[in-house]
Amino acid sequence: VNEQRFLERVRDIVGDAWCRTSAYDRALYRRDASFLNADPLAVVLPGTVGEVRAVVRTCAEAGVPFAPRGAGTGLAGGAVPLPSDRRPISLSLARLDRILSLDPQAAVAEVEPGVVNADLSKAAAAHGLRFAPDPSSQIASTLGGNVATNAGGAHCLAYGVTSAHVLALELVDTGGDLHLLSSLAPETDGYDLRGLTVGSEGTFGLVTRAWLRLLPLPPETRTLLVGFPSVRAACEGVTDIIAAGAMPAACELMDATAIGMVEDYCQPGYPRDAAAVLLLEFEGLPGAVAEGVEAALAAARGRGAQSVSTAEDDQARALLWKGRKSFAGAIAQLVPEYYLHDVVVPRTKLADVMDEILRIVAEHGLTAINVFHAGDGNLHPTLLFDRREPGVFERVTAAGAAIVATAHAAGGVLSGEHGIGIEKRDFMCAVLSEDDLHVQRRLRAAIDPSGLANPGKVLPSPASCGDAPPSLVPEGAWV
Ligand SMILES: Cc1cc2nc3c(=O)[nH]c(=O)nc-3n(C[C@H](O)[C@H](O)[C@H](O)COP(=O)(O)OP(=O)(O)OC[C@H]3O[C@@H](n4cnc5c(N)ncnc54)[C@H](O)[C@@H]3O)c2cc1C
Could you identify the atom of ligand 1 that is nearest to the CA of residue 417? Predict the structure, then answer.
């Protein structure tokens, strides 16, 4: 089937308005929030699960690949329509955006994939409930994207990442068939296909419905900002606070560059004289919250904490969080672009790994900001750059590779929450053996024998695992 005939069939299914091929429309969908991008054959936005299935069947008949897309806030190039043998369509699930049911008694929500994360918690709050995974992109990213990347968030330290909150999924496979993975019962019969699909980054097909666990809103919340004289002291503070048994619901670290940047941007009241701050939140029953705060402050003082401010009401709390959540937007004041890493290390190695990361950044003559989910050991060194500066992109990618190698050597992994996508794909050769990769490729082929679901993502080709250093930007993707 030639491309024109294929597109005519797709238009018959979704209607002309929802199959877009103009240069302008294709440009809008060629990238996610990373700097990777590629030109789709078309942008297709089905409005029902029936249309999704029919589009996927048409792709299968024509041999056209598809790149699933939610809100396009991904940071690993997962939704980028990377060409393989053929140019994929960008297949957006954004129009499937209904909360189908919300059962307060069972604390379960049934949602379509295009529902924006924060909208679910807003709807659940009316019943004293919330959806705990709260990526910092939660006002834009979709639940389908969160499921596909197994998203994390500030409060995932206490409550677990997305996977822990997904009871069951509906998946359209590459043949267009519909599968129900798992059920509302607390256990599964047979293999846990729901668990496999969470975090599969669109390579198994399309998530078209999810049944999500909701949690009660905490009776009490205390939010504090603790200033430290060095990044090292703040990192050691994190390890000590959690080792002391004071389990915060959230424990985020921001360094001095980030503090100055968000103060200039939205004045959240962070201490400009601190080398790092920890934003700590404790939740639960009043007595337990007070005990947690006390134990955490004692541990922090043991590492030289120099200032503490506490949010006295919801407005003050929201302002402290505004500082944390607006750091990515605030970067635009300084430079046009950034490369945000997502490695994870054991929490006890945080201080040493951060020392090494700061050394790598300096060695490459770069500026970085560090704002990260410290309690989870999930680092986000964010390298700032302006590509008009000759040679800077090469230094950014070299520093990135050194950061990944450092985290791996410390017993860490490539991604805590953003996924592998295109960006970390070739690094998989360094962290998994050829035997392990072979098993992963066979698993993927068993679920998607056609290879049409998000080709080029997550798994490197056997050829790319040679002696050559990992290539950050595979052929076909533009930077
Ligand atoms: C400022 C900022 C802050 C961020 N903070 C966090 C954070 O704290 N935690 C975190 O985890 N991430 C964070 N992210 C990254 C991003 O928001 C998450 O990865 C998010 O889960 C992506 O959702 P999305 O709807 O934008 O998905 P997209 O970017 O559109 O897609 C992401 C991946 O999911 C696949 N996909 C999307 N929808 C479906 C579907 N219905 N079925 C199958 N596959 C699908 C895509 O193919 C792609 O591989 C942040 C991003 C930004 C820009």
Answer: 11
Residue pair 133/120 in contact by the 8 Å Cβ criterion: no
**How many CB atoms neighbour CB 336 within 10 A?**
11
pLDDT of residue 475 exceeding 80, the answer is no
- Which of ligand 1's atoms lies nearest the C-alpha of 33? 53
Q: What is the pTM of this model?
A: 0.95
Sort residue 163 into left (φ over 0), alpha (ψ -120 to 50) or beta: alpha
| Residue 205 near residue 175, CB atoms below 8 Å | no
- What residues does ligand 1 touch, defined as CB less than 6 Å away? 32-33, 67-75, 78-79, 93, 113, 135-137, 141-142, 144-146, 148-149, 151-153, 201-202, 206-207, 328, 417-418, 421, 454
pLDDT band at 337 (very low <50, low <70, confident <90, very high): very high
Cα–Cα distance for residue pair 153/270, rounded to 1 Å: 21
Which residues, other chains included, contact 292 with Cβ-Cβ below 8 Å and sequence gap of 6+? 222, 246, 247, 248, 282, 284
CA distance 323 to 208: 34
Q: Whose CA is nearest to atom 53 of ligand 1?
A: 73
Rounded distance between C-alpha atoms, residue 180 and residue 196, angstroms: 13
How many Å lie between the centroid of ligand 1 and the Cα of residue 149?
A: 6
Q: Which atom of ligand 1 is nearest to the CA of 152?
A: 11
Residues 209-240: tens digit of each pLDDT: 999 999 999 999 999 999 999 999 999 999 99
